[in-house]
Amino acid sequence: MPRPDEALTPRDPQALLEQALRERPGGDLWVFGYASLIWRPEFDADEQRAAAVHGWHRALRMRSRVNRGTPERPGLVFALVSGGSCRGVVYRIAQARAERELERLWLREMPTGVYDPRWLPCRTAAGPVQALAFTLARSSPAHTGCIDDAEMLEILRHASGRYGSTLEYLLQTAASLRAHGIRDREIERLAQLAATLAAAR
Fold first, then answer.
1. CA-based angle 155:199:71, to the nearest 5?
2. pTM score, two decimals?
3. Strands 160-161 and 129-135: what pairing?
4. Residue 42 annotated to the active site
5. CA gyration radius for the chain?
6. DSSP H helical segments within the chain, as ranges?
7. Residue 142 has pLDDT above 90, yes or no
């Protein structure tokens, strides 16, 4: 895992937003949620559907120095990383509100431009849609690489930031996925790992 003090080079969020707007498919805006966007979307959607993305998977591999950790003790958040598949939720936002809602979403997800926004094909029961997803490159300094269980427990035990702890974030995501009928074996394994913290207290 890279050093906690390894410098991140912020990218221009506005330039990335303008690129996303240029590449946006016509019509209503679709957004793919795979973690906190499921349980705290913070935008008004006109419709939501269960969805699956192939070629990407949900992974607790993105370092968080503000929201779920600090620069001295970074936490973790989920990101969409290449490989595998991911089940989540897609949200539809009417075209008339799409640009305004996308700007609001950008302020939340892209303050430092860490994600690579992509328009990904999502399968739903009502047919395919092209949705915006926030992905993370494995080459990004924010990507942690593999984390063994001992290190993960240390992060879950100690990392906390502006919006709470990494542990709370993990458990909230696990509960939200279960409530939507989504089974993610790795998240369930991490939730069981986290349960050892409560047992040890």
1. 15
2. 0.92
3. unpaired
4. no
5. 17
6. 13-23, 36-39, 95-109, 149-158, 166-179, 185-200
7. yes
> Which among 68, 60, 52 has a CA at the least distance from the CA of 174?
60
pLDDT digit string (tens) for 17-27? 999 999 999 99
Query: Which of 31, 51, 64 has the alpha carbon at shortest distance from 133?
Result: 31
| Residue of 103, 109, 154, 168 marked active site | 109
Distances (CA, A) of 147 to 61, 63, 105, 109, 168: 8, 11, 29, 23, 18
* Best CA proximity match to 49, nearest among 88, 105, 97: 88
User: For the range 146-150, what are the long-range contacts, defined as Cβ-Cβ under 8 Å and sequence gap of 24 or more?
Assistant: 146/1, 147/1, 147/60, 147/61, 147/76, 149/193
Residue 57 carries which side chain, given as an amino acid letter? H
7 pLDDT above the threshold of 70: no
Instruction: Average the pLDDT over 134-156 and give the result.
Output: 96
At 62-85, the pLDDT tens digits run: 999 999 999 999 999 999 999 999
* Burial class of residue 180, CB neighbours in 10 A (0-12, 13-18, 19+): middle
Contact 51, 121 (CB under 8 A): no
